[in-house]
Amino acid sequence: MTLLAEARAILPDMVALRRRIHRRPELGLRTPETQRLVVEALDRLGLEPRLGERLTSVTAVIGQDRPGRTVVLRAEMDALPLTEETGLEFASALPGAMHACGHDTHVAMLLGAARLLGERLRRDPEALPGPVLLMFQPGEEGFAGARIMLEEGLLHDLNPPITRGFALHISTLYPAGQVHIRPGALLASADNFFITVHGRGGHASTPHAAADPIPTAAEIVLALQVAVSREVDIFDPVVLTVGHVAAGTTHNVIPETAFLEGTFRCVSEAGRAAMPELIRRVADRVAAAYGLAAEVRFEEIYPATINDPEATAQVTAMA
């Protein structure tokens, strides 16, 4: 109860901080204003911020000399390329950028946690069993910021080494005051695929003299949905979506190619590993049935988020 009371006491400061960040959203791996704000807040707490080189990340350690294993607490810093139209008094002042995903709140929350942990450690040097590494990460929205931070040595100099890492995400899908968590797979992996159907161009009045890639592309879209529903175990689910279809330049010319772009999301590494073969097989064989060829390319992005069962039980108990 003491900790909750302390958290409630600093809530107005954290709300003000969050709104300050919200007014100045930044995109991708370069978030210099947010970085400066985080550094100023950590300096006031008596911590020693370390800055990234290839991105505007910030890290700091609380309880550096504590003997137990290190715990990482992480928050994202970047916004989304959207223009805010909420009309809020603290709405984004930058056209084309908005904290629509909640990362402004995450930064404020982690700085609030740092404040509470630091104050508790000053009162009682035994309050923390081990160090806490604060990880402020830009480039979460598709820029692999965490990977770059790892490549720059995020975990290399930890002594003692890391035992666990914690991150959370606010959501407008659930009522306030709830914590939604489960052991094992929580968030799906994300990978992209690109299919180019190669045909032969011609005039719309003589389709028999051409090889129209558009009907073939349409068949591939439908066949992929059927293949997922018929071949993938419902207890190891996969979601596949074709989100971009492009072909041709005018109404009366059959184009030479048609282009499909989509994504697939999996909750296991086995399901993720099986998808490229399925997509390639469907595209190749549907195209071959119409006498055309399909070129398939993949882009690996992120694996599934797998929650540690013991840590999940700990968080559930605290919630």
Structure description:
The chain starts with a helix and ends with a helix. It is an alpha+beta fold and 319 residues long. The protein has helices spanning 2-23, 32-44, 103-123, 145-151, 213-231, 269-289, 309-318; strands at residues 50-51, 58-62, 70-76, 132-137, 162-166, 184-187, 190-198, 202-203, 238-247, 253-254, 257-266, 293-302, 305-307. The longest helix is centred in the N-terminal third of the chain and has 22 residues, at 2-23. It has 7 helices and 13 strands. The model has no long low-confidence stretch (mean pLDDT 95). The protein has a 5-stranded mixed sheet, sandwiched between helices. A 4-stranded antiparallel sheet has the order 9-11-7-12, covered by helices on one side. It has a two-stranded antiparallel sheet with strand order 6-13.
Number of strands: 13
General form: elongated
Estimated structural class: alpha+beta
Secondary structure: helix percent: 25-40%
Mean pLDDT: 95
Order of helix and strand elements from N to C terminus: HHEEEHEHEEEEHEEEHEEH
Poorly predicted runs of 5 or more residues: none
Largest sheet: 5 strands, mixed
- Strand content range: 15-25%
Number of helices: 7
The strand order across the widest sheet is: 1-2-4-3-5
Q: What is the gyration radius calculated from CA atoms?
A: 25 Å
Oligomer state of the chains in this structure: single chain
End-to-end Cα distance = 13 Å
